[in-house]
Amino acid sequence: MGCSRVGLTLLSLLVPLGFVSSTFAIQPDAEYLAREKQFGKQWAAEDEPIQQKLAALEKKFGKKPNIVFILADDIGYTELGSYGGGKVRGFATPNLDRMADEGMRFLSFYSEPSCTPTRAALMTGRHPVRMGLLGVLFPGTAGMGLVDEEVTVAELLSEAGYTTGMFGKWHLGEDPGMTPIEQGFDEAVWSEGNPPWWGFHKGVKRTDNAGYVNMGAFAWAPGPEGFPYDTGGIMSGKKGEEPKLVAPFSLELYNTMDTDVADGVIDFVERNAKSEKPFFVYYAGKGNHFWGAHPDFMNQPAGTNNSAQMAEHDHNVGRLLRKLEELGIAKNTLVVWMSDNGPMYSMHPHGGYSLLRGEKGDTFEGGVRVPGMVWWPGTIDQGQETVDIVQVSDMFTTAASIAGVKNKIPNDRVTDGIDQSALLLLGEGKSRRDYIFHYNKDKLEAVRKDQMKYRTKPKEKHKNCYNIQHDPGERYPDISRYCLWAGPGFGRMIQEHKAMIEKFPHRVQKGYQREFDYPFDPMK
Amino acid sequence: MGCSRVGLTLLSLLVPLGFVSSTFAIQPDAEYLAREKQFGKQWAAEDEPIQQKLAALEKKFGKKPNIVFILADDIGYTELGSYGGGKVRGFATPNLDRMADEGMRFLSFYSEPSCTPTRAALMTGRHPVRMGLLGVLFPGTAGMGLVDEEVTVAELLSEAGYTTGMFGKWHLGEDPGMTPIEQGFDEAVWSEGNPPWWGFHKGVKRTDNAGYVNMGAFAWAPGPEGFPYDTGGIMSGKKGEEPKLVAPFSLELYNTMDTDVADGVIDFVERNAKSEKPFFVYYAGKGNHFWGAHPDFMNQPAGTNNSAQMAEHDHNVGRLLRKLEELGIAKNTLVVWMSDNGPMYSMHPHGGYSLLRGEKGDTFEGGVRVPGMVWWPGTIDQGQETVDIVQVSDMFTTAASIAGVKNKIPNDRVTDGIDQSALLLLGEGKSRRDYIFHYNKDKLEAVRKDQMKYRTKPKEKHKNCYNIQHDPGERYPDISRYCLWAGPGFGRMIQEHKAMIEKFPHRVQKGYQREFDYPFDPMK
């Protein structure tokens, strides 16, 4: 078949040049292969000390490193204190700022433009378009989600001998086969659907209060008869079991969700800290979600749900990091923290903020450039900050690499996520990515290469090209000054990217609205 | 006269309430008096430990503290690494970031909206509208500038026994009586007019190169006959002498200006370090001025004049701080660093950047919210950052206070600058200002109180009010949610502010264009 022939062609091209076959279990995108031709020798040389470092750590601790993924929700690039927010925005994020100070802070970390897509990319290392998962899954969507054929980071790490757990917002489908306990997690406690949608639950009245707003202030909703979302709550289960609804929806549950999720994560960490097996835990927080505020965190100067949720999430991340230290396992634990996309302005001021242009759902920087950082005391040098480009899918491949199972990533599909262990362990300048394909649903809206960003079909003529260093706010497109010259390079990148898609075609998923008699297609 | 009667009325009001008369040499604006009624006792209590601290320092070092003002040019709020810029913008500012780390970083520091006005406010502690100095002084403007009746910080500090020096861009008028050596500085080396205008000098050809641009790329200029600016260069002099032109204009001189200015400052510091007298030096740098780039600093990733100038200025501030340390006088020297206004986008990408809305010449945050910090090892605690509101005029009053001559500030006029020594010496939360009157030329365009900003006459209806914490980018005015309630408060503030102007009327200046046969009024 086409796929394997390409593999062989590339193999015959690369092997004589001395490229290591360890990268070969994975099928990267064309642009990575072009870079590998240029930098492969250098990368192979860098990989040696990394492998030695990881081997020494494994010897010292008697197991592979634990891995924690924390995915926060809708937190804009300029929200944390360490990114120019914090006090400036009327709240404080001392724990997240401390995490940044003690680890590596990414200044060019990119998500997908919305919630479900970023979660899909984090779990599989693939742009969600490749698996037919385009936008946000709406409540009651069926026939759509993370299908069994996709290989998740939880499945890979299970193969590597990890105990795996997931807590929080899953939002990758609810059909049989799509839940976290069927996607590689040994145990999970997760929300059905997308928790903010709980605000539309038929039990919620417009006069009910969730934090600083009553539900009628922001959300129009039809009456119970026509209402699309009448179930929901907290699901729980273990691998091999049937998922159970353990707590039906309530606004109170939504208000305290991040803290409840963190409690679950901390409990999981405590139970697994002294095990012979390393653990992987995925903390999918509530983050920053316009309505709902934990009553204990409503005393922020800004007086918004956003500020209460930022303070709550910051507190919970602090609790988790301190717990890792107390348990004496911090030095054998990689913690990755990131946001899933930019803020949602339709809920201003409760839905977060970014000084960058655009919001959740956009491929402008405000939608996809998000705060992100890694923490691993003793292994990742503290006090680092870098503009090296990183994409959320890279965390999949990097985790697989650090756990020693990168060769288990299937090569019958394109994996977009790039192994960034060199960046984490060797420091600034070592990112193996200088490009991103920015998809919005099924459209390739923008391509990034180095400091240049090319928009394929801007709404206004000639507003194709931005220099992200000169103009992080994307206000001054200037085709003559920068893009006329960059254009042909972008053309080649896109052409080769599309050729790769022809060889490894996208999965197609067709969702529908359950409990309703009309078809529902969130792709439209 | 009206003025003294008001003084007496206020005195009779305040003295029975126990307010200290030390604040009485100065005539603050009405809003400050209202706050003093509320907080006067607390402030008086805080002043005691400050005075003790300053007295102990004077005893230890045998003289009052040295004071350094560094005013950078056109540097936007988000440019320094410590404010979210630096690498993100394609250059590095390690020395300014170190200064922030070792001192106090202001997150709500406000300038006037342009160059001459900010310089006037810094020198006199007064909004420039009060002295009839409205916009940027254009080349060849005469009959306008810092008039003799104004009292400068250099004059006050001279009275306090300081040796005073000024180096760099003066831009406060060129008529007799207006030069730095006639305005309190013992010595000065300064630019005639506004150095960037040198680019229009009749000797400059459109094909001449200044950094990354040739002059024709950005600046249209008429031929030599009609050209308004045919003189210019570096002036020099000592108090009591006639100013001399020591170096005629050249593009080379402009390219290296910040470094040459820093050389002058460092030489002054070396000559005065061991003196029995403390020194005050005003370093008015080139900063960030669209054309011109020092050839030694053109290797920045961004490849712009802005990046070269940022790197150059950063280097020079680093040299100065290290020199203070080498000379063993850092612990007796207060260094204030600030920008004079936001970036100038008409010169993008060479004229700087801010993620905030607006630019130089605007009272939107992008025009007036600027980076600012103070450094005084051992006296100002390191690692502080604060959102306490500070205005550039406060540096005048604070310097006078620290030098013990606040009582020499004349009380026959309003001084807007507030003594911020409590904020500097006691830390966050101690700002005595929670308001700003944002003037643009002679228009009161906006009023700030706490986190709210009220625009008096927005171009679009109902876009009056912004919550600067919720919306630092000023995108979401919402009169119903926030401003309907704040409105009456702003009304009172403006009314009392205007009443004070009636009592202490603005000076009126009327400039004209010398060497031309038509009158020139930059106020229009």
Strand residues, percent of chain A: 15-25%
- Which structural class is indicated by helix and strand composition of chain A? alpha/beta
Oligomer: homodimer
CATH superfamily of the largest domain in chain A: Alkaline Phosphatase, subunit A
Shape of chain A: globular
Named CATH topology of the largest domain in chain A:
Alkaline Phosphatase, subunit A
Q: Low-confidence runs of chain A (pLDDT<50, min 5 residues)?
A: 1-23, 223-228, 516-524
Largest sheet of chain A: 11 strands, mixed
Report the average pLDDT across residues of chain A: 89
- Separation, N- and C-terminal Cα atoms of chain A: 32 Å
Count, helices of chain A: 13
Mind telling me the C-alpha Rg of chain A? 22 Å
Helix content of chain A: 25-40%
CATH class of the largest domain in chain A: Alpha Beta
CATH architecture of the largest domain in chain A: 3-Layer(aba) Sandwich
